Amino acid sequence: MPRPLLRAASAVLLTLAVLQAPTAYADETAPVAVTVNARAALASVPETAVGANHAIWDSRLGTDETADLLKDAGVKLLRYPGGSYSDIYHWADHTAPGGYVAPDTDFDTFMRGVRRTGAQPMVTANYGTGTAEEAAAWVRRANVTKGYGVRYWEIGNENYGNGRYGAAWEADDHADKSPAEYARNVVAYSDAMKAVDPTIKIGAVLTTPANWPDALVADGDAGSWNEVVLSTAGPKIDFVILHWYPGAFDRAAQVPDMIQLVRKQIAKHAGAGSERIGIAMTEFNTGSSDRGATTQPGALAAADAYATLLANGVFTVDWWNVHNGIGKVTEVEGHTDYGDFGLLSSGTCTDGGVCEPAANTPFAPYHALQMVSRFARPGDRFIRAATDQAKVTAHAVRRPDGALAVMLINTSSDTSYPVAIDYSGFSPASGAPTVLTHTNGATGITTSATGDATSRTLPPLSLTTIIVRPASAQAGLPGAPGQPAVSGVTDRAATISWPAASAGTRPIAKYEVRLQNGAVSEQIGETAGTSLTVRNLKPGTRHTVNVIARDGGGGVSPPSAPLTFTTGTPASSPCSVRLTKQSDWGSGYVGSIDITNNGAPVNGWTLTFGWPRAWQSLGSGWSAVWTQNGQDVKVVNEPGNGSLATGATATIGYVGNYSGPNVLPEVFTLNGTVCTTR
């Protein structure tokens, strides 16, 4: 409803009041400290980083306007034919029995839009109601007959939602709904499709850690969905497929554990050569239709999640959806939120007559993807960045030409935060950097050249990217060392090896191994060779290291790609512990702990361990006295089981709760001694 006009005098007074109102600051004398470490490298930015989903029920799928908007957003991968519709869609006659197919959404139309966008396609083959032969014929049509060069092919969509675990939304005509049957068919699909075009990449559906039905084991199955699928289909696939609708705006911190757990599952179950298997997030949305699906909170969460997923090595993150349709309409941070999971308005209305903006009007998350694509370009490499303020998040990349980009996200609704940026391993040029900004309610990203590289004030609910040139372009520096590898990992040591760096104008004098600790890295060793055993590591801990080369004149190379490994516990100890998960329901589990005394007899014992993450907690425990203080758990024997003879074992149990990726405890101490974890 239009607002009544203010009288002129009232308008002037209101304007003066706004101009004279003080800007809110968290602390006038202490800006937010932002640390950017150019020597702590993470994943490189892939060609397919920023993606989105198309759906055959979207009549605007093939329009030039849609393709041009996606191109302007930097979208480099488009997925087709649209989520669960993939499992009812038959490409040859462009039908989806039981669903709606809009005009002008066939495969050739989709590909025309893909090419206009400048993106790569990803196609989901019909597992639910299709066959391997149908999928192979699609590959032939796409890559042999038409020459489209479709590289990425998924086998089905969310096929764990076929009723195997209770909920059924995904079509599946197979009599056997088990993960074993899905895995057998993935093998058959892969063989048939690669017989047509051996260059394609095949993806298999996995569940996302800490998201239903991850970790559940159905009756008759040999393990969870992921364990069974990877054990059978692992040798035949090239990537795995995750979907994530976190339903909240503060979950990006869970991403490193999420991706690491998936990599651990791949390494354990997929067989030899499993390191080739990539990870794709082919559906992502902040998933909160009443907290900012189309407004700025959703955009800020999108930018944070995209950057975090890509920095952790996911090769594409694909927004659901390009167009989706109106949902619950609310007011969020001063703007109408249409509860629409699309990037662009569908121009639809509610039954009550509330209508979205004109079709193809970009929503706030569209601008978030646009910001991410301008911040992190293919070929850039993510580097560590962090802040000391929970409301401000930082991401950074180093570009091949030596420039550095920092993306800052202020999630506060009412505070403009000043920030002070400290660069490690990088000297910024003087003068004004290029600054990209998107603020609450803005209809586009503004570009300016203002301020300096080390200080900035971030408006409330804003995205800001600062692009900084180096102070001087040093020629003749060494190249980056090759991808490091690890061997001989113990509780406190590991041997790191790497391919030699290419020398610049001066010979390479030494290599330095640097351990990441958040956005700070420390040198933990150096050598003139290409292998080093590092010591004094913390047991049972995930470590990420980079290697840099230094020449005889002090010139330093870019850092190597990261290497992540986990130390173990002592090979021998007076005590050993075995933790076994006996059951898991997706938000909690029953754990059993066997404590074995390998030393002298013990009369009275105390076991301690820590939850690796803040989202884990103790529900209950038995066969001992259990207490928790913060993330630390203490377990003391009961009067009847305090004596442990040499070689004796005590078994205790507990219920552990979790609301994020469930990284199990690794390190246990018995009466102050670190035990061997088996």
From TrEMBL:
Domain called Fibronectin type-III: residue spans: 480-572
Alphabetized InterPro entries for the sequence:
CBD2, CBM2/CBM3_carb-bd_dom_sf, CBM2_carb-bd_dom_sf, FN3_dom, FN3_sf, GH, Glyco_hydro_b, Ig-like_fold
Organism's domain of life? Bacteria
Q: Which UniProt keywords apply?
A: Carbohydrate metabolism, Glycosidase, Hydrolase, Polysaccharide degradation, Signal
* Cleavable signal peptide: 1-26
Q: Where is the CBM2 domain?
A: 568-678
Q: What is this protein called?
A: Alpha-L-arabinofuranosidase
The organism named in the record is Streptosporangium pseudovulgare
Q: What is the lineage of its organism?
A: Bacteria, Bacillati, Actinomycetota, Actinomycetes, Streptosporangiales
